[in-house]
Amino acid sequence: MSQPNLKEIATQLESPNSRDRLLALVSLQEVPPEEAVPLIKKVLYDKILPVRSMAVSALGVKPTSESYPILVKLLSEDEDYGIRADAAGALGYLEDLRAFEPLVRAFYEDTEWLVRFSAAVSLGNLGDIRAQEVLLEALDSQEVVLQQAAIGALGEIKAMNALEAILRFAASDDWLIRQRLAEALGNLHCDKSIAALRFLAKDSHPQVRQAANISLERLQMSPSKIQNNANGY
Fold first, then answer.
1. How many helices (H) and strands (E) does the chain have?
2. Cβ contact 155:187 at 8 Å
3. DSSP calls for 10-57
4. Residue 216 class from Cβ within 10 Å (0-12 exposed, 13-18 middle, 19+ buried)?
């Protein structure tokens, strides 16, 4: 596949039509980070929010020496909470462990749930066990989406010590929480996880059952054994 024409993309990014600018950002997907980031920066402060949002998110998959400091600044200083949330999400995609402290700070200090949600998800993406304490606190949030993010992230960081704390959500009324739990348990290999997954494999919601069976398979249980043990919890 031939690389997109950078001059054409640069011109498109200066188009008065926001659709052209969005399409230009999409075409940067095939461009190496060192060449893409200078072009992304042209629209980081675009007057059209969807353009800004896509530009910020694009930095998360284009790691250069500039990407991290730009995203940290946006996370801590931008007036638009949607952009701060995008920056938090992009930091998770970068998988740069330096982002741990800024993400924790955003989780504790930002007043918008969307930013805190993105920070929690990204802490999971970093895979740093230091996030366990923060994520355990998120389990007690009044925002269900934060609980969902925390459960998933605790699985991502393989926080075995958090197993008891997340197992209480097996009986949650929210099927998305039960699904996140089933997905998280697939990263926490122990007898209790397997027992809980067998329970969730009988859930009333098909997506929860599917997630539980996928996690059971990930824990190297054969499909036949999953079926045979479905009533063993």
1. 15, 0
2. yes
3. HHHHT-S-HHHHHHHHHHGGGS-HHHHHHHHGGGTT-SSHHHHHHHHH
4. buried
What is d(CA 191, CA 108) in angstroms, rounded to the nearest whole number? Answer: 34
**177's tokens:** 């929480």
Was domain 66-157 assigned CATH 3.40.50.720?
A: no
**How many other CB atoms are there within 10 angstroms of residue 41's CB atom?**
14
Q: What is the amino acid identity at position 22?
A: L
Q: With 0-12 CB in 10 A as exposed, 13-18 as middle and 19+ as buried, what is 163?
A: middle
What the block records as the tokens of 178 is: 């039960």
Q: CB neighbours (10 Å) of residue 76?
A: 14
Average the pLDDT over 85-95 and give the result: 97
Tokens 């980081």 belong to 44
CA nearest neighbour of 106 among 127, 126, 80, 77: 77
CB 187 within 8 A of CB 161: no
| pLDDT value at residue 164 | 97
What is the CATH architecture assignment of 1-64? Alpha Horseshoe (1.25)
- With a pLDDT cut of 90, the percent of the chain lying above it is 91
- Residue 30 has a CB neighbour count (10 Å cut-off) of 11
* Contact in structure between 24 and 57 (CB atoms under 8 Å): no
pLDDT greater than 50 at residue 233: no
Q: Tell me which residue of 27, 16, 86, 31 sits closest to 62, measured CA to CA.
A: 31
C-alpha dist (Å) from residue 178 to 95, 113, 169: 27, 21, 7
